[in-house]
Amino acid sequence: MMLDFQEQVTKAEAVWALTVARRGYSFNSCDEIGDVFRTMFPDSKIAQQFSMQSRKVSYVLSHGLGPYFHAELIKCLKKTEKFVLCFDEQTNNQNRKQLDLLVKYWCYSEGLVVTRYYKSILLRHATASVLKNVFIDSLKADGLELKQLLMLGHDSPFINLSFENLIDNEMKKIGCGLLKIGGCNLHIAHNGFKTGLTVLAVPFLTPALRRHALPYVPATREQLDNIFNLLKQYSTKQRQHLIDLGSGDGRIVFEAIQQGFPRATGIEINRVLVYYARLKAYLSNQGNICKFKRANLWKHDLSKYDTIVLFGVDTMMEPLLKKLSKEISDESIVITCRYQFPIKFDRTVGEDIDAVWLYNSQTIRKQILKT
To answer: Is 290 in contact with 225 (CB distance < 8 Å)?
Structure first.
């Protein structure tokens, strides 16, 4: 659509007003913006006619653009099944109490939960009953139904509880009601999230606080392929029992069974990961051949395993090498991932973080004796 000159000027002023609102510029900062644009663009006729002062910006946003965005909001709210109303009481610059209303809802066009400004109500000395009537009338005027209201959000456990109860009673009359979780629902949700995050995160983060920090980092598909390709290249003999030191979610143990190992064991200090791996073994009917134990690898006896796999870190490789030299059997082989032992390896496959190294028991003991 072609715009005439005056419409182009109006469009420029509207774009600037939207920029002020979006960026949070003060209205007073607009008093000389027309002069700035005319200085920057002296050859622009639109800049010469551009006129936006603080009062005009306020008027354009509240009476020009505001009704359009409010109408768009109402269209979205009519399409959604439920929405949350958030309200906050404050005193405005005229020293009058004001209730600002926001709505949270699932926006189908954007595919996420959005928060939008709904409207403001001047309270003066309004009672909860008057406030309830104003709110219900506002919904009706916009063509919204009270049954769409899911819950009320506020920033204090004591703010407008009478209002909340009155709204809940009105909703019960039409066969529904407010979802109440008590106090400030936002703080309750945040505290619940914090507690859940703490419970889940502590077992994953505490390994980093130990002497030999060994955080959980799952093996990639390429690392798994390198481990078992290296085993096939080195030994044609059927290996009987693999152990993964720091087994995480158990993926190396499960892969070992798929590759033909009769038995495979994983030891892991993280209780959550141990339970997860056990559940996965149970659901896949492999609980009798895949064993997962919560154990400290430094205290676990490694003599009964003929294949040992570990994803280590640099600081633990030398002390672990000494432990292996004392415990592993003559038929054992050890495969390290990401970090290698400070001795000569027998074979290696892969590059960078996907590299794996193989050591047999004779190589480990001979080189330990030399040192």
So the answer is: no
